[in-house]
Amino acid sequence: MKNYDIVIVGASTAGSYFARRMAEKGFSVLAIDKSSREKISPEYDVFHMEKKDMEKYGLPKVKEGDGICEFIFSKQDMMSAYSNYPKAAPTEVVGMHKHDYIVLMNDWAAESGAEIIYEAAFDSLIYDENGKINGVTYEKDGKKVTVSCRLVADCSGIPAVVRRSLPDGYGIEKFELTPDDILYVVLRYVDFTEKKGRWLQSQFWLAYKSWLAPSAGSDAILGIGACFGFDYVEKCFKQFEKNARLPGYTVKKIEKGRTPYHRAPYSFVSDGFIAMGDAACLTKPNCGEGCTASLVLEQIAVDVASKAMENGAYPTREALWSINKLYNNTQGKEFASLMALLTGVVRHSPKANEFLFKHDVIFSEKILGGMGRELELSVGDMLKIVLFVLIGILSLNIKISEIRSILSGLINSGKLTEHYEKFPETPDGFEQWVNEAEILWKKAGKLSDWKPEL
Ligand SMILES: Cc1cc2nc3c(=O)[nH]c(=O)nc-3n(C[C@H](O)[C@H](O)[C@H](O)COP(=O)(O)OP(=O)(O)OC[C@H]3O[C@@H](n4cnc5c(N)ncnc54)[C@H](O)[C@@H]3O)c2cc1C
């Protein structure tokens, strides 16, 4: 039986990054993927990463014209429901062909010594006499192969095949995503009939969870996401198309995919185990992007796991625990807070959205530009919100129920931030923390609790 320090299940963005960094630390790493190298990550063509994140995490570089990089752009506007009052949210974004970039990331991981085996599907976990993970079985060419290891990383995406196969009581939630916990995303690669400047630059409409990204192979990629399935997404798209006053276009290609919209598991680690990427629901609550969102946890995991595994040590739940603490005190609390905020904030009509955008209230450059990061509102900011909310209600632009939802979003978001800050330093006190978190998430609700008739 072959022996590795680490076995990673899934070799897409999450798996490749962890493989590269742990191999660089001198560990023997095996990454298995059920796809062939030629077909890995075929779901959709173009994906985006912020350039500053690619630099921060030292990801392989691309440049326009290399066949992998599709388009680089930096101007982005958040738009009101009727495509008015743009709020600038500038950041340099790199659009890339996803399959080609994953292959590049695979080679980047292999360069540092990680072994990648394609067409190898995870079968089961192996446990030692104390019930702790110490290996993996996978299927390759119709045969079962068993390898031993000290740490298994689940990077298998939405199916979370390893996390969900863990025995009850292993210390990790085994939830499976239902259609209510998933954003169904449709991308339309379009050419506009009239080439107007504004339609060739990046824009985002919070009111419909839709966006336009510039593209090299067509004028733009029009994207939209919603819970409940692709039929419902199409209804949302019709509303978006009409209200946002899109110019005429022809569709060159349509792609569909799914991205998690569920809080992350309360703990990512247990004895000899860690979950990352979509398998741990690490997607940005405002747009569903997950490639760089996962790297925050992964970099913490690299630092903590490499210490926990020094000199042949077994990475126990206790030894890996600070991954939970460090993550939940940073991006974990920000994503929890943003998810609760958006759950309340999105429950309003296009009319209310237009009013709030117009008066730079709630949907202000300051708040929209700071999404996913801690936000400090001054007393003046708060007073302005209260004043314009009142004007909105009196002028019949906003309903009281809409304001109630927005306010409860703000309150739940603040409570979750505080709670995630108190994430326990050790597994002691975790159960109590989870019980309180459950109450807060119940109050916050889910995006899918609101399904406007379209
Ligand atoms: C239409 C669409 C557009 C998106 N656009 C963006 C974007 O622009 N930017 C962004 O950051 N995010 C985007 N996302 C989200 C992003 O695609 C995911 O968050 C990201 O791919 C998650 O990476 P991952 O490595 O965790 O999982 P995945 O990319 O899903 O990879 C999982 C890997 O595990 C393998 N696997 C699964 N089961 C097994 C098994 N049993 N055995 C072995 N291997 C297995 C799969 O073959 C796959 O290679 C988009 C999502 C969609 C649907």
Task: Describe the protein in words.
- The chain is α/β, with parallel strands linked by helices and 454 residues long.
- The chain has three domains: 174 residues, FAD/NAD(P)-binding domain, CATH 3.50.50; 82 residues, D-Amino Acid Oxidase, Chain A, domain 2 (2-Layer Sandwich), CATH 3.30.9; 118 residues, no CATH class.
- Helix content is 34%, strand content 23%.
- Strands 7-6-15-16-17-14-18 form a seven-stranded mixed beta sheet.
- Helix 1 links the parallel strand 2 and strand 3.
- Helix 5 packs antiparallel against helix 6 and helix 7 packs antiparallel against helix 11.
- The longest helix is centred in the C-terminal third of the chain and has 22 residues.
- The radius of gyration is 22 Å and the shape is globular.
- The model has no long low-confidence stretch (mean pLDDT 93).
- Flavin-adenine dinucleotide binds next to helix 1, strand 4, strand 10, strand 14 and strand 18.
- The site of flavin-adenine dinucleotide has 39 residues, from helix 1, strand 4, strand 10, strand 14 and strand 18.
Please supply descriptive tags for the structure shown above.
alpha/beta; D-Amino Acid Oxidase, Chain A, domain 2; binds flavin-adenine dinucleotide; 454 residues; FAD/NAD(P)-binding domain; 34% helix; 7-stranded mixed sheet; 6-stranded mixed sheet; 3 domains
CATH topology of the largest domain: FAD/NAD(P)-binding domain
Distance between the termini: 57 Å
How many distinct beta strands?
20
- Proportion of helical residues: 25-40%
Question: Any idea what the radius of gyration is?
Answer: 22 Å
**Domains, number:** 3
- Structural class, from secondary structure content? alpha/beta
Low-confidence blocks of residues: none
What's the average pLDDT?
Answer: 93
> Count the helices. How many?
12
Secondary-structure arrangement, i.e. CATH architecture of the largest domain: 3-Layer(bba) Sandwich
Q: Provide the CATH top-level class of the largest domain.
A: Alpha Beta
Superfamily (CATH H level) name of the largest domain:
FAD/NAD(P)-binding domain
User: For the report, how would you describe the main beta sheet?
Assistant: 7 strands, mixed
Strand order of the largest sheet: 7-6-15-16-17-14-18
What percent strand? Answer: 15-25%
Bound ligands, each once = flavin-adenine dinucleotide
* Morphology call: globular
